[in-house]
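Case study B.
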Amino acid sequence: MDMESFSNMQLDAMREVGNIGAGNAATALSVMLSRAVDMDVPKAELVSIYELAEYYGDPLAPVSAVFVRSEGEFTCSLIFFQDEEDAQSLVDLLISHQMSGMVLEDIPPEMRDSALTEVGNIILSSFLNAINVLMGGTHSISVPGVAHDMMGSILQVIASIFGQTGEYALIVDTTLKVGDIEKNVSGKVVMLPDPGSLEILFRKLQVL
Amino acid sequence: MEKAHHVGMAELVVVSSPEMLMTLGLGSCIGLVLYDQTAKIAGMVHIMLPDSRGAGAKAAEKPGKFADTAVPALINAVCSKGALRSRLKAKLAGGSQMFALPGAETDFLAVGSRNAKETIDLLKKMGIPLVNSDVGGNKGRTVEFSTVTWMLTVKVLGKGKTEI
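Model:
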């Protein structure tokens, strides 16, 4: 698959995949928190790997990121990432909702991290489940990995995956935003189909 | 403070003293510096991947992308600016693994350690002494190289800075 020339129809199809996946992910987050979750219109863009580190803004910004791999017929990487501050607010929301009675200050950092990993895992699994229904077939999802680091360092993971075979990455992303609260708590769900599995996806979606 | 030249992914930059070199948020990538203190020349390359096998003709367009093409390209670049090959010394940082996914097929996530190994092996093969390095682990690094003190400053989020 030539990673530098997608038709508009193929990019539209990827946006639709993003829409279906993110819709399911937003629902899952909403159920976990018992709050409204808004979702932006998904984007599907081809980005030069050399510009990836700055694609979402300041490469030095501290972010928290959960990463999983989908394995099976259609392989891809999925990342849920947030500004570190938003991630901590999300953990607060989750703990106060799911474990009412706990004093937030008493929760040890390891437990906060574990909660964050699990939220990310549920969001990304929900995204992938919707894609599986769309694609048919079975796909498994890896154990989640979590990192708290500079955005540029995290985006390098993506650059090195796509760099093996080319100069561009296909990025499908959406912002999820927790509603009904004063504080802004949002996160980005990013899907990165492996270059080798795009043909399978496009064939199924009948845009090849 | 001297102007710092930012070295983006797969880029290669050569400066002369007292200019600085820097690269932001190294994850699995490597920031390799070669310098000649007598000629007062230093160059940095931001290596993304261990080897160019399979990249074909494209590797020649971006020699900084792969360790096997980046090391010779950086040697040529600093020497063409007046550094002497026999006086070259090396320092490097990076090559971490940002995510660990137990049980998954994730060779590509370990690209950082392969980047570091390949670069260090090449320096040895080319006879360039590696003065110091800070590689591996699971944290991102921001690095700055001074052509006044010839030190590489490595900053890690939440852990402060070290000089190597």
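The beta strands of chain A are 37-39, 43-48, 62-72, 76-83, 139-141, 145-150, 168-178, 186-193. The remaining cases will be described in the next quarterly update.
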